[in-house]
């Protein structure tokens, strides 16, 4: 699909997506990404969800999306066969298999996802994958998130706790775990990031592939990074990230929605800082 016409930025036109409007859904839905927006800037969150003025958008990262799609197809083959993916075997996780569940497709679909009602709002989030180990009383589920990038940095579990952008991935993981636990599923505090990292030292696109796709993307060996939210050192920018943190985040988001006026901006919100600066001219 080609983009052939520019659109002017404007306020959201559907009142049903604005909290407190006569046509808004009750309970009001809040996505995982909107919860992250509340965490970063309560003011932007309130202006978006209550007043209908969202931040300016940006194009999607379609190559990253393609990697996610291909990983899902690969893991779906093993989901159907009840076998561990090679990435699992390579990381001593051969006792796990991709979860085969009738809700799996819906849980992974944007604008559907995992949904639960708590504290007067409906929280939603679309997972990339869930792995399973054990059966019956020993069954345990593990939230899995696919990530792709191209960096020379050594990607380690420690980096997820040091890098502010990867810290957002840990918060994302916590919200997904909380959502599935609220539905009563046997979700572990252990979660996994499947990381595909582009090889910056490659001199060209590879010539390996199929007739339809003769060139591949030069990637380093895939990494599987484990984060356990039960560990006391899971601290992102001074905050202990666990399931209690998610609970308090949801409570705070609902209180923010109920405010009559916009709250203070987040300390590091570039959008609010920019808007405040240009308003002087």
Helices and strands in order:
Elements: E1 28-31, H1 32-40, H2 42-51, H3 62-81, H4 86-90, E2 96-98, H5 104-107, E3 114-118, E4 121-125, E5 129-133, E6 140-149, H6 157-162, H7 164-182, E7 190-197, E8 223-228, E9 235-236, E10 239-240, H8 243-257, H9 270-278
Helix pairs in contact: 1-2, 7-8
Explain this structure to me?
With 281 residues, the chain is of the alpha+beta class. The chain folds into 2 domains: 15-57 and 251-278, no CATH class; 62-116 and 125-243, no CATH class. The chain contains 9 helices and 10 strands. The protein has helices at residues 32-40, 42-51, 62-81, 86-90, 104-107, 157-162, 164-182, 243-257, 270-278; strands spanning 28-31, 96-98, 114-118, 121-125, 129-133, 140-149, 190-197, 223-228, 235-236, 239-240. The strands form 3 sheets. The chain has a 5-stranded mixed β-sheet with strand order 2-5-6-7-8, with helices on both faces. A 3-stranded mixed β-sheet has the order 1-4-3. α1 (32-40) packs across α2 and α7 packs across α8 (243-257).
């Amino acid at each position: 699909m080609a983009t052939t016409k520019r659109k002017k930025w404007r306020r959201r036109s559907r009142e049903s997506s604005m909290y407190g409007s006569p046509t808004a859904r009750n309970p009001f839905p809040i996505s995982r990404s909107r919860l992250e927006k509340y965490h970063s800037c309560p003011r932007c969150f309130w202006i978006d969800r209550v007043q209908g003025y969202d931040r300016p958008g940006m194009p999607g990262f379609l190559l990253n999306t393609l990697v996610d799609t291909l990983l899902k197809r690969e893991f779906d083959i093993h989901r159907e066969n009840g076998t561990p993916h090679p990435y699992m075997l390579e990381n001593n996780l051969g006792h796990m298999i991709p979860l085969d569940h009738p809700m799996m497709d819906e849980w992974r679909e944007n604008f559907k996802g995992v949904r639960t009602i708590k504290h007067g709002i409906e929280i939603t989030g679309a997972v990339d994958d869930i792995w399973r180990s054990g059966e019956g009383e020993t069954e345990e589920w593990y939230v899995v998130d696919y990530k792709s990038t191209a960096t020379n940095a050594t990607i380690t579990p420690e980096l997820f706790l040091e890098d502010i952008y990867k810290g957002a991935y840990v918060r994302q993981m916590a919200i997904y775990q909380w959502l599935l636990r609220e539905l009563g599923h046997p979700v572990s505090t252990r979660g996994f990031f499947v990381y595909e990292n582009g090889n910056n030292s490659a001199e060209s696109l590879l010539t390996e592939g199929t007739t339809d796709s003769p060139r591949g993307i030069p990637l380093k060996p895939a990494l599987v990074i484990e984060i356990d939210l039960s560990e006391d050192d899971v601290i992102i920018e001074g905050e202990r990230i666990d399931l209690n943190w998610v609970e308090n985040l949801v409570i705070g988001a609902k209180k923010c929605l109920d405010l009559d006026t916009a709250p203070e901006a987040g300390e590091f919100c570039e959008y609010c800082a920019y808007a405040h600066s240009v308003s002087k001219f």
